[in-house]
């Protein structure tokens, strides 16, 4: 799974909030039941996303602007759901 950059290096662990719990046929999204669930994930690597080129142009005025952007990402592996 890939997320926005999470502080920490490769191999470190952190907790994620539970948003939805599926247990067989039972699907739960109630906040009081999700508070009991712990999701632990391990950071696999930090990486950067693909380059996005942003260009602005206005006709007949000589205005051109070019800007690039790469998002900072973290690849994680969910290790336990308890």
TrEMBL record:
Name a GO CC annotation attached to this entry. ribosome
Signal sequence annotation = none
Q: What is this protein called?
A: 50S ribosomal protein L21
Q: What keywords does the record list, in alphabetical order?
A: Ribonucleoprotein, Ribosomal protein, RNA-binding, rRNA-binding
Task: Quote the function comment for this protein.
Answer: This protein binds to 23S rRNA in the presence of protein L20.
Protein's gene? rplU
The family line of this record is: Belongs to the bacterial ribosomal protein bL21 family.
NCBIfam families, per this entry?
L21
